[in-house]
Amino acid sequence: MLIYATSSYGYLRDELAAHTQAEVGRLTRKTFDDGELYHQIVDETVGREVVLIGGTISETETLELFDLSCGLVSSGARSLTIIAPYLGYSTMDRAVKPGEVVKAKTRARLLSSIPHARETNRLIVLDLHAEGIQYYFEGGLHAIHVYAKPIILEAVRELGGAKFVLACTDAGRAKWVESLANELGVPASFVFKKRLGDGTPVINAINADVAGRRVVLYDDMVRSGGSLLNAAQAYRDAGAVEVSCVTTHGLFPGDALRRIKQSGLISRILCTNSHPRAVEQARQSDGFLGVRSVSSVLADVFRQTNPTSGTSP
Do residues 291 and 281 touch, judged by C-beta distance below 8 A? Predict the structure, then answer.
């Protein structure tokens, strides 16, 4: 088996290769003076099982994922498995205003148009913001939705300690947080929000008693941290002695992580390495941000769905 990665996901390629004993694939990359990108697949891929890791974290990375996928199939890969630890535009899964482009669907159409390898084309995605996105892929691209639940549970236990309340930043994550809380045997708490005339979200209620207790917030994704800080302030106002956060996808664009840290509302954040930005930011956060690898979860799912193993997802 050969395993490749887009430009930003070399770290996860190497971890997954170690778990699966796969051979790390070789690529030549160049950028021309006009900005155009050149790729060459160095290895002989005819009849080989090929894995490509790459999240759609930017337009450039998305196109690289598409270009490499097409190139690997064209060069004779027997099967192609794309692993997208973070799927961009997942919050744009439906149109709210007239004329809005549903980017989650258009990106799914793009990946669905990748030519078919001789045996199968698969896409493994992790903790989708909207579960229905899994069914946006078509044309024979088999999408498999993987949950990082084992990693999330371990991270929550680490931050929560012996006695804590598991909470969410908004009602959209309520069912997932309730499921995690039941498995952990701890109370679940939800916040209720309303929007002001200008669209600003305001928390107006909390459904659990958190006075004198630790609160661990879970959200599948943290971007700017606005919702996270609003919820943390509400729980602090309600008497929580400490608020920490666990998230699957830590995006932290710009100075988002610095602002979250400087707010003083969040004691620590743990996330996975599904997004390279989190890996980069963790190195500079003095322990405020901790990163846990998803490579073992992805390797387990890959082994279960490996077409040569005779199992099915």
Answer: no
